[in-house]
Design brief:
Layout: H1 5-21, H2 29-43, H3 48-73, E1 90-98, E2 103-108, E3 111-117, E4 128-135, E5 138-143
Parallel strand pairs: 3-5
Antiparallel strand pairs: 1-2, 1-4, 2-3, 4-5
Helix pairs in contact: 1-2, 2-3
């Protein structure tokens, strides 16, 4: 039995634990378990190939058995922000939109937003517009046919 192997497996355990501790998601915790298994095999006098097999098998079993639970527990639902709900909606121009002058406002879902036209065209007061995107605090809009989007 080589004298450096216990230190090697200990290094694998420490490196995997440090990587795990420095990330927001579980990415290397399974290698910690595999390293512990290999270290135990080493301390019991197993050959290097046996230690390697133990490392791989313990890592794989730990990964396969815990990954579904981890995915379920870490499955955070993405919540749309208030701003996201405006994209695809119909709005009414309440102040002429003119990108060159940097002016324009749209009323959408009861809120007033600064707006810019997507293609740079001037859009008159009272026009229906479709909200295409949000850049910073400005809506990017196009002239719309007046029919509201499905909610």
């Amino acid at each position: 039995m080589e004298t450096y192997l216990p230190y090697f497996w200990l290094a694998v355990i420490i490196v995997a634990a440090v990587v795990e501790g420095s990330t927001a998601q579980l990415v290397s915790i399974w290698f910690v378990a595999g390293g512990v298994g290999a270290l135990i095999a080493n301390l019991c006098g197993a050959e290097l190939w046996t230690q390697t097999v133990v490392f791989v098998v313990v890592t794989a079993i730990t990964l396969v058995s815990t990954r579904p639970l981890v995915k379920k527990l870490m499955n955070f639902k993405k919540e749309e922000t208030n701003a996201d709900r405006y994209i695809g909606k119909d709005g009414i121009v309440i102040a002429e939109i003119n990108n060159t002058l940097g002016v324009g406002q749209v009323n959408v879902l009861g809120s007033v937003w600064t707006a810019r036209s997507e293609d740079g065209s001037v859009i008159k007061i009272g026009e229906h517009v479709l909200i295409k995107a949000i850049e910073g605090v400005k809506l990017i809009v196009t002239v719309h046919n007046g029919m509201k989007e499905e909610e």
